Amino acid sequence: MISKRQLYNCSGRLGNFQKGEVFLENLTLSQVKTKPCPLCDEAKEVLEPYKRRFILQEVDITLPENSAWYDKYKYDIPVFHLNGKFLMKHRVDIQKFEDQLSKLELHNDGNH
Length: 112
What we know:
alpha+beta, Thioredoxin-like_sf, Glutaredoxin-like_YDR286C, Glutaredoxin-like, Glutaredoxin-like protein
């Protein structure tokens, strides 16, 4: 499991929350990307309306510590994993994303 400190280091933020807002801290969307990457930027924009429902962890595969990600995904970016499980690549499939996010939210609600 990724710690809050690691998430902060990867994404530069844990989120800006409004009073009374519910945030499911254990939903993490990892975006495997490079810099520059217009498709990655486009995908991030598509996900903007959902940003308060998950923590975004950006993984830059050009960094030496991410070489395993580079070897696996160098031709497929952007790639997304939701809570550590592969979700989609190349472009955001919004229906698939919404379905999986809702499924995890319902599962988490049932565990509280």
